[in-house]
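TASK: fixed-backbone design
INPUT:
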C-alpha cells in the first residue's frame, strides 16, 4: 500500500507496523508529530499502545527501558536537546542492554529553526557505544524502524535513530505493509543481572559491549542501508578525481546534484552511510579509489572528523576544510556547488527539469521578508509581562531569568522583559544562583510544562535554602510552543509548590487579563518584597487551544 507521509509519520507508522507496544516522548520540534501520529492511529488505538506524553525525556527513556525489561518494543522520541536531559538513562542503557527492542528517535535541528543549539546526536550514539541509524528518505525511515527493532533485539542494545528537520518535516510517497507485526508477548529477561548496574555487573557488561563494537561495525559494512556505488574510472585513469561520502538527508542533495548534471558525467563514486559505527572498510575502498573525497553530512563533521583522523589530509574535503559551510543546514544548491567546484560534476544542466526547483526555492527565501515571531494577540503571557515590566520599573537593576516556551518571546520588543534563557528549567536555578550572588530582585519566569519538565527540582533547591527569589509559573494549561499538547501538571501546581515547601502565604494565583492589572501588579510587588521563595501563578488558557476547544464544542 502507498501512503503520502511526513518523515515523522513514516517513523511512527514504521514503529507501529514493527510491533510497537509503547511510545514514550516529550514534545519537541521537529519530533512532535511522531507521537501525535501514534496517538491518532487506528491500529495503535485498537491495540491500546502507550502514547501519553511523559513529563520529560528522562522519564520517557526510563519508562521505555521498563517496557523493554518486560520483553516488549518501545520507542522513545525527542528533539536533540532532549537527549541531554535523558543522557543518564540513555548512556546507561548501553550498559544494561535491552530485552524487548528499544529505538531512541532523536530529531536534530541544524540551522536551529526552533532550538537553542545545533548539536549532532550521532556523537551520543558513538559515545554510548550504541548502533545508530540515519535514514536518508521517508521510505528508509519507515523500513528502518522494523530493521532497528530487530537489530536492537538481536544485539541486545538500544538503537539510536537520528533524523534532521528536513527529513522529519517533508513528505514523500511511502510503500507500507498491509498488516502490522504482532506485539511481543511479555517475557521476563533471562539476563536479569544486566539490569542491575552495580560495578561488578557493569564492568562485565562494559567489556561485552566494548567487544561487540567490531561486530556492529562489520554489520554496518554489510548493511543494505550502507551502499557503495563505485563506477569504473573513465579514460583508463587509476583513480576518480572526486568521490562522495554522504549520509542522511544530505545523500538526497548529492543525488539531486547527480540528477541535474549532464547525463554522461554522472560517474561519481558515492558511499551512502545510514548505519553506524562508521563502516571503515567501505570508507577505505572509497579513499583507495579516489584522489579526493568530499564528506557531505547534515549537522557537525561527525564522519569527516573520523575519516580525516589526525592526518589533516588535503584530500578529505567537507565542512572542516571550507568546501561546505561549517555550520547550518546544507541545501541542494550548496551541495551541488561544492561538488561542481571540486571537479566532481560539471555545473547543473540548465535543461534538466528538476534543477529550477532548488533555485526557485532559494529565490523565494530571499523574497520573503523575515518577520520576528510574536506572542499571539490575547495571550496571557502578554498580560504577565505588561504587569512585570510595570512593577520592575520601580526597582533598580531587577533581573528576570527566563525559560523555554512561548513566553521566551518576552525577550523581544515590545516587552524586552527577560535577561536569560538557557535550557528547560534554568530560570529558577539561575535566579537562585544570582540571588546567592547578591542579586535582588531576582525573578524567574517559567511555563507550566517547563516547570514540571525541569523546574520542580530547582524550586526545591530554592526552598531548602530559603532563596530570595520570586517565581512566576505562567500557566496557560498547555504546552503551547510545540502545538498545544497536554501539560503534565495541569490542576496540580499549587499542590506541587506547597508539597515542595513553599509557604502557603506565598503561593498566589492570578488571572492575567488587562482588567486585573491593579491586582496582579499589587501581588507582584508584595511577593518581590517578601524575602524568601514566593510563587505567583498567572493562569489563563492559551488563546490557541481556547479557540480550538471552543470550535470543537460548537461542533458537538
Ligand atoms: C529539553 C527540551 N525538550 C523539549 C524542548 C521543546 N520545548 C521548548 S519549550 C517547551 C514547552 C513549552 O511549554 P510551556 O512551558 O508550558 O510554555 P508555553 O509554550 O505553553 O508558553 C518544549 C516542549 C526543548 N526546548 N528542550
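OUTPUT:
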Amino acid at each position: 500500500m502507498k501512503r503520502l507521509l511526513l518523515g515523522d509519520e513514516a517513523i511512527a507508522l514504521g514503529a507501529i507496523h514493527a510491533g510497537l507496544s509503547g511510545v514514550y516522548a516529550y514534545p519537541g520540534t521537529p519530533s512532535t508529530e511522531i507521537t501525535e501520529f501514534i496517538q491518532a492511529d487506528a491500529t495503535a488505538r485498537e491495540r491500546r499502545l502507550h502514547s501519553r506524553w511523559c513529563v520529560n525525556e528522562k522519564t520517557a527513556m526510563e519508562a521505555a527501558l521498563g517496557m523493554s525489561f518486560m520483553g516488549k518494543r518501545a520507542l522513545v522520541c525527542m528533539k536533540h536537546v532532549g537527549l541531554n536531559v535523558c543522557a543518564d538513562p540513555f548512556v546507561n542503557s548501553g550498559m544494561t542492554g535491552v530485552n524487548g527492542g528499544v529505538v531512541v528517535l532523536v530529531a536534530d535541528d541544524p540551522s536551529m529553526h526552533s532550538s537553542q543549539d545545533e548539536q549532532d546526536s550521532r556523537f551520543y550514539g558513538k559515545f554510548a557505544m550504541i548502533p545508530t541509524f540515519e535514514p536518508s528518505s521517508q521510505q528508509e525511515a519507515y523500513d528502518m524502524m522494523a530493521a532497528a527493532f530487530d537489530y536492537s533485539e538481536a544485539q541486545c542494545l538500544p538503537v539510536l535513530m537520528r533524523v534532521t528537520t528536513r527529513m522529519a518535516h517533508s513528505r514523500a510517497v511511502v510503500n507500507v505493509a498491509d498488516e502490522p507485526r504482532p506485539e511481543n508477548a511479555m517475557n521476563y529477561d533471562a539476563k536479569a543481572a544486566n539490569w542491575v548496574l552495580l560495578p561488578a555487573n557493569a564492568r562485565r557488561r562494559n567489556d561485552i559491549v566494548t567487544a561487540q563494537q567490531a561486530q556492529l561495525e562489520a554489520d554496518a559494512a554489510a548493511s543494505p542501508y550502507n551502499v557503495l556505488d563505485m563506477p569504473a574510472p573513465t579514460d583508463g585513469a587509476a583513480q576518480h578525481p572526486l568521490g562522495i561520502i554522504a549520509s542522511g538527508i544530505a545523500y538526497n542533495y548529492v543525488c539531486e546534484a547527480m540528477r541535474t548534471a549532464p547525463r554522461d558525467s554522472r560517474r561519481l563514486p558515492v558511499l551512502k552511510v545510514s548505519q553506524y559505527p562508521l563502516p571503515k572498510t567501505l570508507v577505505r575502498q572509497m579513499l583507495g579509489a579516489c584522489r579526493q573525497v568530499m564528506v557531505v553530512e547534515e549537522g557537525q563533521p561527525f564522519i569527516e572528523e573520523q575519516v580525516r583522523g589526525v592526518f589533516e589530509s588535503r584530500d578529505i574535503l567537507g565542512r572542516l576544510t571550507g568546501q561546505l559551510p561549517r555550520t547550518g543546514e546544507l541545501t541542494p544548491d550548496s551541495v551541488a556547488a561544492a561538488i561542481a567546484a571540486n571537479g566532481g560534476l560539471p555545473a547543473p544542466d540548465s535543461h534538466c527539469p528538476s534543477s529550477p526547483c532548488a533555485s526557485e526555492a532559494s529565490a523565494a527565501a530571499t523574497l520573503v521578508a523575515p518577520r520576528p515571531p510574536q506572542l499571539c494577540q490575547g495571550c496571557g503571557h502578554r498580560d504577565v509581562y505588561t504587569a512585570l515590566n510595570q512593577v520592575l520599573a520601580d526597582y533598580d537593576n531587577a533581573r528576570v531569568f527566563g525559560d523555554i516556551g512561548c513566553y521566551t518571546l518576552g525577550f523581544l520588543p515590545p516587552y524586552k522583559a527577560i535577561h536569560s534563557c538557557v535550557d528547560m528549567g534554568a530560570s529558577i536555578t539561575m535566579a537562585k544562583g544570582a540571588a546567592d550572588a547578591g542579586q535582588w530582585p531576582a525573578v524567574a519566569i517559567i511555563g507550566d510544562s517547563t516547570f514540571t519538565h525541569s523546574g520542580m527540582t530547582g524550586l526545591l533547591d530554592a526552598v531548602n535554602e530559603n532563596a530570595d527569589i520570586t517565581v512566576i509559573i505562567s500557566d496557560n494549561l498547555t504546552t503551547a510552543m510545540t502545538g498545544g499538547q497536554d501539560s503534565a501538571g495541569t490542576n496540580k501546581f499549587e499542590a506541587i509548590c506547597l508539597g515542595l515547601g513553599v509557604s502557603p502565604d506565598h503561593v498566589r494565583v492570578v488571572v492575567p487579563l488587562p482588567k486585573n492589572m491593579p491586582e496582579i501588579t499589587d501581588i507582584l510587588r508584595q511577593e518581590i518584597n517578601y524575602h524568601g521563595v514566593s510563587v505567583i501563578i498567572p493562569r489563563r488558557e492559551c488563546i490557541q487551544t481556547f479557540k480550538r476547544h471552543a470550535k470543537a464544542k460548537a461542533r458537538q
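COMMENT: The radius of gyration is 26 Å.
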